[in-house]
Protein: Eukaryotic translation initiation factor 5B
Organism: Solanum lycopersicum
Amino acid sequence: PEEPGAPNQNEDNLRSPICCIMGHVDTGKTKLLDCIRGTNVQEGEAGGITQQIGATYFPAENIRERTKELKADAKLKVPGLLVIDTPGHESFTNLRSRGSGLCDIAILVVDIMHGLEPQTIESLNLLKMRNTEFIVALNKVDRLYGWKVCKNAPIVKAMKQQSKDVQFEYNTRLTQIVTQFKEQGINTELYYKNKEMGKDTFSIVPTSAISGEGIPDMLLLLVQWTQKTMIERLTYSNVVQCTVLEVKVVEGHGTTIDVVLVNGVLHEGDQIVVCGMQGPIVTTIRALLTPHPMKELRVKGTYLHHKEIKAAQGIKITAQGFEHAIAGTSLYVVGPDDDVEDIKEAAMEDMKSVMSRIDKS
Ligand code: GDP
């Protein structure tokens, strides 16, 4: 990562970091996602949070509001945070590896009562392999015996309210887990003691996905960490970078692809190339779709149509010929100066890497 503040970096032109949630089954990945989406989403008053295709978008304003008790006085430079909704698919190793590939940062969830488990280590290996930055959410702190609930409180404040016994159990478990990480070759430290953000030591944030303690800390850390260590990576670029997450048949739309647009802009009518089982698929974007905002969820089965969409976003694309598209590959846009043949070749290169990943898993 570049030194923050180096020349040629335009902090006014950043895209949202993309974050995925990984970890062992039952550690609380789904619950954490529900918790950060908050109840206001269900109430239709989403605080700017929007449900996207395969992802949830949190605008910076929402994060600022929810972290104000931390008095971090954080200058939020990124427009928001895009969190990929894959926890439900976590039985697919392949999807997990894809998920971690397109993410700028990951939340590795560990159950404080269980410590590192087999899929924690598997996730850790994927993150190491791809050099993906991550933070550890040490979840279920409310299960420490005698925990006093401090709803949605910053973790230091919540911890001060706890009895000596609770604090002792917490410290013991934390120390054990730090040791377990060390055995995997990973240095970790409580986030507020880890001043060397992103420099060999990964941060731990204790959380409860049920009562919300530590959630403000987690949100702030994600944003601060990404904007401190990844300014260059997050600088918006016109070069389209886009990953196919899923290939799905949708009534009335035929076979569609769900993508995460990591960088650049997609337009209705763009000529695109995606990798297909029977060779490259060259087609034209018929529609760019996103779900309706929360309060309009009653309008079933319909989507919002967009003329163009700018990164970072989760989008459903309709076009002809997606029947044999392969999830996990990149989508390419054919520009006016591009040779379609070169792009077809590039698209098919992805096939090899996807296949080798399937072979390994
Ligand atoms: P996933 O498999 O990692 O997505 O885990 P889930 O989010 O489905 O959670 C597994 C179980 O743990 C569910 O019964 C949750 O209600 C529970 N759970 C998740 N997070 C917490 C937490 O912070 N505290 C407590 N007490 N239970 C939790």
